[in-house]
User: Which sequence fits this backbone?
């Protein structure tokens, strides 16, 4: 994992980010051009109704070539960075980091699904 993401699940940029990178595991990343970003939806995670240990929030991002689903806690900060065009990178952190910073976002999973040519 990159040094800048060791204590936080995201990195902010200056508002002119060429891409948004998703760090899925050590040495595995996938990035999308900011120009491909279409929009996002921040909602409650429907799985959290049945499983109290499930992340309560779901942030769905739509790019022209893929859909990205992020599950976690306090994801409002990520949505704010998207609004400002300042989200540069997102990563998953181990569960032990979830409550270290009670106001910081915490990402438990990132799922990327390519949009097929139909």
Assistant:
């Amino acid at each position: 994992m990159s040094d800048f993401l060791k204590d936080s699940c995201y990195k902010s940029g200056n508002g002119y980010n060429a891409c948004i990178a998703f760090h899925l595991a050590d040495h595995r990343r996938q990035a999308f051009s900011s120009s491909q970003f279409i929009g996002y939806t921040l909602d409650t995670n429907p799985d959290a109704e049945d499983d109290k240990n499930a992340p309560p929030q779901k942030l769905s991002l739509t790019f022209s070539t893929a859909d990205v689903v992020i599950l976690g806690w306090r994801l409002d900060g990520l949505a704010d960075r998207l609004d400002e065009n300042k989200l540069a990178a997102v990563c998953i952190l181990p569960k032990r980091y979830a409550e270290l910073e009670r106001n910081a976002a915490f990402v438990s999973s990132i799922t990327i699904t390519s949009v097929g040519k139909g």
Notes: The chain has a mean pLDDT of 86. The beta strands are 10-12, 19-25, 28-33, 37-44, 57-63, 66-73, 87-91, 106-114. Residues 3-114 form one domain. Residues 69 and 111 are 5 Å apart (CA to CA).
